[in-house]
Records
---
Amino acid sequence: MPPEAEEAEKYANLALKYLENAAEELSRGELEKAGEYMWGAVVEAIKCVLVAKKGIKVAKHSELRRYARELSREVGDPEIFRAFREAESLHSNFYEAMLEEEDLLAHFDSVRLLVSKLLELIRGG
């Protein structure tokens, strides 16, 4: 397996693991932790697509944001960038604790869909 494929698989596995962790934290009422895991799942899924499609690694938040915007345009799906921005708010929530459980549950569905969409870009083509 080429190094890029191995790296992409590592990121994909982390994204799925973080989604599972988010669900567990939601069930325990640990909303800030759940939100941070959701954000982490999105980050890892974007890194997966980036390394698999372009062979590059990203470390900066601003680069993730820019790539999410570019990817959204490339595949003609504005929902990718919209959901990314929504997930960004979860990262802030870890520090500010401003979202309620109902908000986090809605975000979880959006994040799960985004991660699935991103990973399908790799697995489906």
---
Amino acid sequence: MRSFNNKVAAITGAASGMGRQLAVQLARHGCHLALSDVNESGLAETQVLARQANRAIRISVRTLDVSDRKAVFDWADATAREHGKVNLIFNNAGVGLASTAEATWHWGQKGTTSARSTRISRNSATARGAVTLASPS
């Protein structure tokens, strides 16, 4: 992608850290934003920072728990309706696990000896041609 201008990015985990910085940087480059996080106050702060970076973009926000599959799909549908398209999906939010590195290494299917890998897939249901980076369910 040569330009983010007039593209639409959906970002989970946008209330702080990498998600917040990603939102602000994309806003500076003219990218419209659909932001989500469980942290409502942090999400509002990110919205303010993104708006300060570029007053001309559309920004939608939703308090969202990514461990709730139905809520995630509802947010995806609402984002596509509100913005008309989605070009970029950043699955930045995480669901924490408390375990040792050894246990995490065997986190995948029973009998596997490698860590759970990420995959790149096309999400045609909400954004024809959008690329998402996500961990397999």
---
Amino acid sequence: MRTLACVVATVLLVVTGVSATTPSAEPTARAPSPGVPAPMPSPADRSARAEAAADMPPPAAATRGSTPTLPRRAVQPGPVFVVGDSLTVGAEPWLDGVLRSKGWRVTGVDARVGRGVGEGLDVLRSQGRALPATVLIALGTNNLRATPSEVAGWLRDARRIAGARRIVWVGLCLDDVLVPRLSTFRAMNRALSAAAPRFDVEVADWCGYAAARGIRTTYDGIHYDDYAYEWRAWFYGQALDGRLSQPPVTDARPTSRSR
């Protein structure tokens, strides 16, 4: 009889389509493990998301303590010269293609690992009249002990070299949570913001841009992986387009990732 009852029960389960292991409700989404950062967008989404993110405002946490955004500047793409340090070296493989896609023509990219501001200004000076109408400067990472008067001197010298040309200067963004000694970059950003209007220099807010998009440094708090460097190339393009002409967000907290 017990065997017959088992057979009958099995037949009923098959006929009604009910499984003995069917849950009574759908499972809820599994929460991410604590301490695991959200993944960056997949490589296939890079170009589309970069353009779509151009006008995305930074989150409230990234804008705390910042000064108001300057009005967007109407810019006509044309020839541009770029001078920088290791952060531009990292972005350089994508830079020409990104800028060309936006209508810019790169007349030169002169970047070197370990370059200081003085050497970079000498590079601009050596160009003489060959400098195009727009110059992008991404320097300062190797001069973190500079005083506000020294920073103002950089902008003054850049203006003297460039004459009436447009100057875009990229602000700094280092991870001083991961490496506390890098915190002096905040004072440099403040000095850039204070001096820029006097010398008609646009300061592009890399820190706010990076924080808004979850772009992280590597273990040293300064440099990036290839994926983030590709984003930096897009950032240069958007800065040249006049979309990021604002003082640096000096209180933005970059998110770090160790290797």
---
Amino acid sequence: MSVRSNCFSLILLGALAFAGASCNKQVATNAPGETPADATGAAPTTTAYTPANASTPAPSGSTGSTGGLLSKLLPKPAPPVQIPAGTALHVRLGSTLSTKTAQPGEAFEATLNEPIVIDGARIASRGATARGVVVSSDDGGRVKGRAQIGVRLTSLMLANDKEAAFQTAPVYREAPGTKKKDAVKVGIASGIGAAIGAIAGGGKGAAIGAGAGAGAGTGVVLATHGAPAVIPVETLLSFKLSEPIEAQGPFPAAAQAAQR
């Protein structure tokens, strides 16, 4: 009787041990990331993955606030200033120009004689450098024509240290007339011819000699160019803008020019 009871007890203990091992194996084989239900029967929970370098988005409405603040603090660029067409530019020539030496296309310099002031701003200062070019240089015809030279301005240094390019109407200077000098040359030649004719053949020879002398004198005049057209250094010339100039500021106030 006791032997049977012991055997039965051993078989029961083995069955219980086998059932416990089966339960532990089932718990260990749950899928990764799953949490077994607790004793109260609550459902398993999962945790969302957040990257370590993920940035937090800025609150709505804050984009560009820094740029907007800087744009308010920085000064606004000055509006451009327009120098209208027809504005007079008074300059003094920096070197002598003559039809004897000057050629079309030759450059020259001058200095502004009066400041340019527009709406209280000094656009160009007195003494500013102006540049120009010779547009024509004609040494003139013989007797009938006079020598003539033409010039115009092409740029001016403004008060903001920038050079503005433009076009002006040309200014011309003509050589003085030589009719009196030419008449004297002919008269002298005629007198010399008359004297030579008188010596050679009396009164009749004088008349012939005078005519010959006059013809010779006229030939001398025809073979000689007239006086050149010259614009001396420091000559005051006035030009007018052919088209408006738009210049970007800022420019100093005109009152500052008076203080200087």
